[in-house]
Design brief:
heterodimer; A: about 550 residues; alpha+beta; DNA ligase i, domain 1; D-amino Acid Aminotransferase, Chain A, domain 1; OB fold (Dihydrolipoamide Acetyltransferase, E2P); 3 domains; seven-stranded mixed β-sheet; seven-stranded antiparallel β-sheet; about 25% strand; globular; B: about 350 residues; alpha/beta; Metallo-beta-lactamase, Chain A; Rossmann fold; six-stranded mixed β-sheet; about 25% helix; disordered C terminus; binds zinc ion
Amino acid sequence: MRAFSELFTNIDQTASTNEKIDALVSYFATADEQDAIWCVALLSGRAPRRTVKTSELWEWSGELSGLPVWLQAESYHIVGDLAETISLLLPSHHTNHDYSLHQIIHDLIDLKGKDDAERKKYITHMWQQFNKQELFVFNKFITGGFRMGVSDKIIIKALAKHYNIDENIVAHRLSGGWEARGNTLNALLSNEDGTTDISRPYPFYLAYPLETAPEELGDVSEWQIERKYDGIRGQIIIRNNTLFVWSRGEDLMTEKFVEFHNLVNMLPDGIVIDGEILPMKDGIYLPFHVMQTRIGRKNVTKKTLQDAPLVMVCYDILEHDGVDVRHLSMQERRAILENVINDARSRNNNLPLLLSPVLECNTWQEVTEERTRSRDNHCEGLMLKKKDSEYKTGRRRGDWWKWKVDPLSIDGVMLYAQRGHGRRADLYTDFTFAVWDGDELVPFCKAYSGLTDKEMLQVDAWIKKNTLDKFGPVRSVTPTLVFEIGFEGINPSPRHKSGVALRFPRILRWRQDKTAKEANTKADLMELLNIYGIGKSE
Amino acid sequence: MVTFDNCGIYCAQAGIYIDPWKPVDKAIITHAHSDHAHAGMGTYIAHEHAIPVMRFRLGADIRAQSLAYDEMITINGVKISLHPAGHIWGSSQVRLEYKGEIWVVSGDYKLRHDGISTPFEPVKCHSFITESTFGLPIYNFPPIEEVHGDINDWWTKNKEEGKNSIIAAYSLGKAQRVLTHLDTSIGNIYTHGAVDNINKIYIDTIGTLPHTQRIDSSVNRKEIKGAMIIAPPSALDTPWMRTLQPYKLGICSGWMQLRGTRRRRGADRGFVLSDHADWDQLNTAVKETGAERIYVTHGYKSIYAKWLSTNYGLDATEVETLYTGESEDNNTDTQTKLAQDNESIQ
Ligand SMILES: [Zn+2]
Ligand SMILES: [Zn+2]
């Protein structure tokens, strides 16, 4: 536990990717096998489920610290993180005994099903074994949410370095679901962990946003241009005549996608297709929120199937005839994909798969024009893929670019401010914005990200000076500050006073040049809704 | 005997203010930090080691009377004396006694010994005015020696990686304190001009400090390699800093106890080192005075006052002042209660 908690601190105290990788590599060099695999599991978001309730943590730690509930609450409010607050409030201890990481995790898992007294005894006992740093890490195990600034890419790089294996192989072996308990990294990475998991997806290759003029990418003929769809990125896998559907968040979602269940009979075995899952009716894509509602439902009813039937727009093939084909060029993979889809379609005219059309552009000027037509197609922009590119792992620069359309935007007045959480616990960072409806300000969205650190401090100081009222962590402020809010989509919403709901709203910039009166109106929002909202194409 | 008005803490019987923030005739100054020592007073009374810094910051021509610790003066029947506060060198608690009633205004203080300031001495009184910068139980500072060790280890590691180590510390107090505990065998030590100015005063009036070099235009930046550089927080993110690349930045402050502040300040490393009292020190100090009335100033005022009255049964009140505590960018607003769904207690 000591070594792991030091690893955690070293990672936490640097922003440098290389230093994080180095810290992991030196941890792997000396760590116990079972500790090492748990380290990877925890950092990649595979922490075990919580077995202790928040209320129990407060109660038990309060008994040890002797602090009253109100003071615990005040402390939590300042710190903003449950695990950290409790570790700061508990008396710290110095014992020389070092507990093994995997033993602790196994004990925590085994707490499930034990009675209250036993669980309390274990947790309070452990709380008295650790120094502050270890306490924090231990509490993070209990409360979950352990990722802490370590991306999968960092873990993959560190493992590739330590085991001297290709990063792509590491990435593939680490993806999907695997058990850490009773397993080792050696077994997992050499694919001998006994679970030869036929459901295992490939890591998605993700594109970087294009920040330069497309002309700088060179000859347009070397690029395959496709639309960028606004759905759920997914992989359809058929192995051993069994279907698996993974989403990009690496969730196995096979059950949700009833439409695909018959694919086992339509596609050849040993195949993995990468594409976008979208609702489509009568040949027209439906907006994203239709899909969201559909995914959110527990049961897929006949009516949902009729209202929002799903298809996959396929753009890549990663495995064919049971062979990993990611090293082939985009062009070669595309040819295979076209064959597979066209062949399947010729035998099943209700195939729920479409090919992502390749846009025929002879100049970058034509590409630029296609981009402006994105919203008409319910698309977010274009994808530019190098024709000779392999299918890589994770987000990489160079071969694949996404070229999104500029976000829609509207100027809103700040009405409410709420404290941030965690590392921004003492700053007001979450804002509610409003537009004018006659003389009245109507809230239309919440947004937080987008300001620079300096602006954030300025706005925070302003809020503290211009508070009208405080309720809980929220303050209402004099409607003065104007911000330009960007968003990806707009939908009608009877639940909101403004009548609309925005997709991915964020602050584009602080309009210090505008007074509150110059902000946009509800009528402006309605106009955007009419142009870009639902229903236009039906 | 002592009241609080819009100029500061006032003793009407003696006609004197303590740490006033508006110009008054006579002012006793607990210490030379800018939120406690303001310009424009008719006469200043302060500890002999505080006055040279005040002259440097407020003007050479200020009228000042210096006192040693425990030296007593009497103004209109009020016996006034200064006692070590342990906050920075020359920092004092002010003891006022009139007809047997005793008040102590503690200014800023800490109980731990920093190796530079005269250590804090508890003073018995009836009414005690305390700060509350770190008046929450989440603030439990690690042993000072441990932090000094960490700073030297960090410097060594950075030097091995070919990087400079910059420590952000207040030029008055914190900087000298950090300096004295550096292991000079590791490498060269440089200072920002603001720190160097105060160091000179320290050396002139009190004692020695490790050898340092001021970074001014005469210094060839290429010669600064693997060095330790002490700079005030105001120098962060300035062009001056950028000339010192490659470097690692460490911040020394009590706020570094919180992971969030550490990350938000963009430091490579946060060292929990404060010239203020943490939770345990505050409670010890309050108890040792034997006072029954406690006035709580800058910091987590309302929380700390509530704690003193509910836990120790003291008559504790919060007082509005213009003192700011440890950091200029940390607005610790404690009025709002948490109302969060998944992690809160209620
Ligand atoms: Zn001070
Ligand atoms: Zn102060």
